[in-house]
Amino acid sequence: MNIGLELASYNHCIPQMQSHGSRGTRLGWLALLLLAIVLLPQNLSASALTDAARQLAHKIAAVTGPGAVALEITNRSSLDDRSVNEVRTALEGQLRGEGVRTAKPDESVGSAQVTLSENLREYVWAAEIVVGQDERRVVLVSLPRPQTGGAPASAMPVVLRRTFLFAQEQPILDAALVEMPAGSRLLLLDADRVAVYHQQSGRWELESALPILHARTMPRDLRGRLLLRRDHLFDAYLPGTICRSSAAPPPAVACNDSDEPWPLTADDGSVRASFTPARNFFTGAFSPPIGKVANGPSFYSAAALPRSGYTLWALAAVDGSVHLLDGMTDQVIRNVRWGSDLAVIHSNCGTGTQLLVSQSGDPSEDSLRAFDIPDRDPVTASAPIEFDGPIVALWSESNSTNAIAIVKREDTGWYEAYRISAACGS
Amino acid sequence: MRRIVFLLLAAASLLGTAPGATRPRYGGTLRVMMQAAPNTLEIPAAGTPSDYWNLARILAMVTDTLVTLDAAGHIEPGLATTWQSEMNGKRWQFTLRHGVRFHDGSSASAAVIAKILGDLHPDWGVHASADTLTIETDSISPSLPAELALPRNAILRRNSDGIPIGTGPFRVAEFQPGRHLKLAASEDRWAGRPFVDVVEIDLGRALRDQAIALELNKVDVIEASPQSGTNSARIGTSLQVELMALVFPPNTRAQDARLRDALALTINRKPIQSGLLRGAGEPTAAILPNWMSGYNAVFPVQANVQRARAVLADSRQPALTLNYDPRDPQAQLIADRIALNAREAGITVQVSLSGSPDVSLVRIVLPSSDPATSLREAAQALGLNAPILRSSSVDDLYPAERALLDGHSVIPLFHLPLASAVSARVHNWNPERGGGWNLADVWLEAP
Predict the structure, then answer these.
(1) Per the confidence metrics, is the pTM higher than 0.95?
(2) Which ipTM value was assigned to this complex?
């Protein structure tokens, strides 16, 4: 949708029509997607606008009959100048074709005042027509409005990069990229299924959809985790439900009601934590314990930072604090004001392993930033990378080299999956 | 030096980020105030617009409807997941959500829902079969889903005390008529348990009291005047969902259409809107707001006293009595201004609350984002004949609305929005643009 300046306008266009410019750059096949999303509707709309203008002209001509008419067009909609000019051209052309000539008021037998307006669903164009001493007549046409459908460099040790993977209207809980001999596959976990996509001509095409059947009511802030496995394709964890894929083709998935704890990393021997089935957080019970700690605070997310001889666990607690567990002590950091989603990401820079942290909680934008924890105090390791909406899920990928971030775009309400990777900065 | 700058930047990034950056948090009590002081929890037959919105918001917390509408009038699933019409819109079939239960544990089956809707609409044929509900009407009803989305069609049963038992995100825990309502989270809600544990609603609180309570941090969600500003809170304004208009009753002395036409031409709406309404709303000469219809430009709002005098010509016209709703804080001032405007064209209008009025200043609700449904509801509220509508297309709407306004039995004046404000500890505050509050998705910052 191309939105621009109004012409003569004395009431405001509907605010929802204002476009939100994309801030990110998209690569590869994304360019095709953008072409499809942005340019195609524009082209379609040009044709639709012209057709509607001709339709309106036909209705005007039916009232005025052949002759000279003063035509005035006022734009009170979100159409831009170019579109209005297209409408004007089509309108005048069709009127001419039906024997109606546009002229100055003093040279005309009647007038047609056209107002280009809109409601929340459609453009509405009205023509108020007066011919001679006759009563004012109003004719209308309407046409659907198109649906409105988005890195900084850094002097920090780490540069975060995001790669757009996929977007859909339904909430995405987690995503995973799998390299297979037959080509890459993208797995997407949502509330009802695991969708498997394969790449074809630069686009992800749906290959199969594996339904997730469960008896329980899912919580309002639904979360889910997709973990790739060695002996079968994946395990999917949802609150109160665990699903396991088949080991051999054709792909299938079997789900069971289960309160089994979720693995906090992809390792087979990973620490697991109990997830509250009707809520959106982990209870804080670990299995096996982290060193001597079997019970920590309730937390939203956890990240494992390998250290020489032990693992330092960072937990984003439900109360907003961050806990660092080393198996012996529980250090609480209260003043960081981080978001509630943490993940670990490996790079060859800084300490080699960074903590990836969501930031704002602002519904219109959010960002990710990397931190090093050389000792026990976090040090900023990257500039933030920004997103056009809140980050609703952040998980380390199974190899922990990259992470997956799911963003809910503020302008469209759609969910976008990104792969987050790290490179060395200056 | 560069290292110092880096460390300062690093420290700033740790400490200076926006607060409250967490996932939705479960728990806590949401404190709400409302103007309405209902004795029963049902949509009032003859209340103020404020009474309507307050009860609609309460029922939306406790109950569900079969479907809902978004701001653009698109149908969205509620207790029904799919729907289709047959016989040119005379028969509608709804597939119901599986396993939904009322707050008392009983099943919200198709048979139960059919009974509830059948009792509400004896003229409908409502039939249940397995998970399917069929509704048949005598005339074509393209807007039936919009009708079903209205709060009066909420799917609920009532206990012996008249307390509604629904399937919504909250159940009624305690009700002190006219004073207080306590709602508790429904743990088994089909769309997931709401984030807050309890909603405490203080009823019968004036707007001014609500604003003071918000300033003192004694409440989390209040109604607000669209024009007012509250520094410590976030304010949300809806689309224009109310109409202020002049209505002539059947026994008015203004039987001469020229007098009503002339009165309409004298009213200078813009200064009233910018002054008395403090910029809220939009002057209008139409029943439906432009965001619903899109054609309001063809209903001119400019005053034209000269033309009003010409319309009256030398006719002798009676003096008119104008009354208003004394519960509406702005109504008297607006009525006085209308009387003043009328005088410029030689029309005598006396503002009075006593006696039989010749014209009334009213404020009505436009309850649906479906324009056909709102036009029907508005016509009923304004005492006009029901419009004949086959669809919500502008080709049907415009002539129907024009017909309602011909004869000037009603003079539309302003379309008005609703406003609400919340405290800083409220997160995920996304009031519906049609006036609803959607408190099930709200969560509270940790204490």
Answers:
(1) no
(2) 0.76
